[in-house]
Specification:
Belongs to the acetyl-CoA hydrolase/transferase family. This is Acetyl-CoA hydrolase. Keywords: Transferase. 27% of the residues lie in helices and 19% in strands. By secondary structure, it is of the alpha/beta class. The chain has an eight-stranded parallel β-sheet, sandwiched between helices. It is globular and about 75 Å long. The N and C termini lie far apart (99 Å).
Length: 471
C-alpha cells in the first residue's frame, strides 16, 4: 500500500509539472541563468510590441540606456492599434518621450520614479504621474509586488560567446523589474558599453530583440562659472580629505568639486551615478579606491552612468567598475560602511531652519527624491565617524532670487529634513548646522547667503525666530 501511495504521489507531481510547463530552466526568473532551448524573436522595432495590450504596464530602462528607438515604436504601435490605459513606469529617461504627448492621452500614462525634463510638462498638465520615493526603495516596488510589468523595454550590449548581454550603463532598478516582467523587449546595440556587476542578462530571457547601431544619449560637461568654482573650492579644500569615498551626481557643481581635487590622494567612488569628471580624476592618479572599506576595494561602485563618449569608452569592458543594483548601492548601511564617506548633493532652496527642497518648485514637481537622503543619512551615520553630508547650492537663482529663504515656497516638498542636514555650502562659505539651534542655524545660513539678501533675511529671521541681526 505504501509503495502504491508513493507511486501515486509521484504520478500526480509529474502530471502537475507537465501541466505547469515548468523545468529546471524556467522555474526562476534569474536574468543571469540561461533558459535551455529558448532564443529571442529577432524583429524590427515596429514588430516588437505585438504582445502589448490595453491595460498593460510597461517598464522602461532609463538614463543613458533609455531604449529610445523602442519607446518610439511602442508609441506608434499604441496609436495604430487604438490601445487604451497603457502605463509606462521608469526612472529618469533621456530623449523625447512621445508617449507623454497630448495626442497619447488615454493611450499611455507615464509614471516616474524620478522625473526628467522630458516628462515635466506632462506631469504638470496632469497627463502623467510621479511617485515620491527614495532611490534605494524603487526596486521594492517590484520585489514587493506593488508593480507588475507586463513588458520590460531595455537596452543591452550584444551577447558574448556565452550568450550574455549587459544592461550597460543602467542597472539601478532594472534588474528587479526584469524578474517580474512577463515579456522582455530589448534593443541590442553594439555601442552599448559592456559593464560588470549586476548587469548580466542572458539572451534567452529576451522575448523580442531589435538590432540597432546607435550612439547613446550624451551629457557634455558645461564650463563652470565663478560661482560654481567657488563652491567647488570650499568643498574640496575644507571638507574632502585624502582617502575619502565620494558620492556626487551630474552637473556643474559636482564637476567643479572634482576639478578642485587634483591634489588629493587615494579617493574612492561609491555613488548612485557619475559622469566624465571622475574619468579625468582617475587618470590623474587621484582616484585609486584603495582605502575603501572591506568590500569593493580598488573598484568603482555605481548604479547608473551618463556622460559623453569618453565616459562610455572608459566603462566599456572595465572590470574595475561595478554597476550594481540601487537598493544595494544606496543602502544607508552600505553607505555608512564606506571610509570617510563624503556625500555632495544639490538642491533648489534651503530655509532658515535647514529644510531642503530638491524635487519641486512650489507646487510644481521638478525631479524627485533620488538618492539625496540615502547618501545624506548614510554619510551622517558613517561607522568610522568621519562621514560628511553636504548640500551645495548657488546663493541665488539665475533671476537673482535668494536660494536661502525665510520660508520655503508654498506647496514645495521637503526632501531632506532639517534634522538630516549637516553642511550647507554656497559660494560665500560653509554653514555647519548639526547640533545647532534654530536661531543658530538661521544665523549661520544668513552668513553664506548672497550679500544683497542678507538684510532681508536678518529681518525675517528676527520676526520668525528672534535672531538678532549681525552687528
Amino acid at each position: 500500500m505504501a509503495g502504491r501511495g508513493v507511486a501515486h504521489k509521484i504520478g500526480v507531481l509529474s502530471k502537475l509539472c507537465r501541466l505547469s510547463n515548468r523545468s529546471y530552466f524556467t522555474y526562476v526568473r534569474e536574468p543571469s541563468h540561461f533558459i535551455k532551448g529558448k532564443e529571442p524573436k529577432w524583429v524590427t522595432a515596429d514588430k516588437a510590441f505585438e504582445a502589448l495590450e490595453s491595460g498593460n504596464l510597461v517598464f522602461a530602462q532609463g538614463a543613458a540606456a533609455t531604449p529610445i528607438t523602442l519607446l518610439k515604436a511602442m508609441t506608434e504601435h499604441g496609436k495604430a492599434n487604438k490601445l487604451k490605459d497603457v502605463g509606462v513606469c521608469h526612472m529618469h529617461t533621456e530623449g523625447h518621450a512621445p508617449y507623454t504627448e497630448p495626442d497619447c492621452e488615454g493611450i499611455f500614462r507615464s509614471l516616474s520614479f524620478f522625473m526628467g525634463g522630458n516628462v515635466r510638462k506632462a506631469v504638470a498638465d496632469g497627463r502623467s504621474d510621479a511617485i515620491p520615493i527614495f532611490l534605494h526603495e524603487i526596486p521594492h516596488l517590484f520585489t514587493r509586488d506593488l508593480l507588475h510589468p507586463d513588458i520590460a523595454v531595455i537596452h543591452v550590449s550584444p551577447p558574448d560567446q556565452h550568450g550574455y548581454c549587459s544592461l550597460g550603463t543602467s542597472v539601478d532598478c532594472v534588474r528587479a523589474a526584469l524578474t517580474k516582467s512577463k515579456y522582455i523587449v530589448a534593443q541590442v546595440n553594439k555601442q552599448m558599453p559592456r559593464t560588470f556587476g549586476d548587469s548580466l542578462i542572458h539572451i534567452s530571457h529576451i522575448d523580442y530583440a531589435v538590432n540597432i547601431d546607435e550612439p547613446l544619449p550624451q551629457h557634455p560637461s558645461k564650463k563652470q562659472d565663478p560661482v560654481e568654482m567657488a563652491i567647488g573650492k570650499h568643498i574640496a579644500e575644507n571638507l574632502v580629505v585624502d582617502g575619502a569615498t565620494l558620492q556626487m551626481g551630474i552637473g556643474s557643481i559636482p564637476d567643479a568639486v572634482l576639478s578642485m581635487l587634483t591634489n588629493h590622494k587615494n579617493l574612492g567612488i561609491h555613488t548612485e551615478m557619475f559622469s566624465d569628471g571622475v574619468v579625468d580624476l582617475y587618470y590623474k592618479g587621484c582616484i585609486t579606491n584603495n582605502l575603501k572599506s572591506k568590500y569593493h576595494k580598488g573598484r568603482f561602485v555605481v548604479s547608473f552612468l551618463i556622460g559623453t563618449q569618453k565616459l562610455y569608452d572608459f566603462v566599456d569592458n572595465n572590470p574595475a567598475i561595478e554597476v550594481l543594483t540601487v537598493d544595494y548601492v544606496n543602502s544607508t548601511e552600505v553607505v555608512a560602511s564606506q571610509n570617510c564617506m563624503t556625500a555632495i548633493n544639490s538642491c533648489i532652496e534651503v530655509d532658515l531652519t535647514g529644510q531642503v527642497v530638491s524635487d519641486s518648485i512650489g507646487t510644481r514637481m521638478y525631479s524627485g527624491f533620488g538618492g539625496q537622503v540615502d547618501f545624506i543619512r548614510g554619510a551622517a551615520q558613517a561607522y568610522d565617524g568621519k562621514g560628511k553630508a553636504i548640500i551645495a547650492l548657488p546663493s541665488v537663482t539665475k533671476k537673482g532670487e535668494s536660494k536661502i529663504v525665510n520660508m520655503i515656497k508654498p506647496g514645495a516638498g521637503v526632501t531632506t529634513s532639517r534634522a538630516h542636514v549637516h553642511y550647507v555650502v554656497t559660494e560665500h562659505g560653509i554653514a555647519y548646522l548639526f547640533g545647532k539651534s534654530l536661531r543658530q542655524r538661521a544665523h549661520a545660513l544668513i552668513q553664506i547667503a548672497h550679500p544683497d539678501h542678507r538684510a532681508a533675511l536678518e529681518k525675517a529671521a528676527f520676526e520668525r525666530l528672534k535672531v538678532m541681526p549681525s552687528p
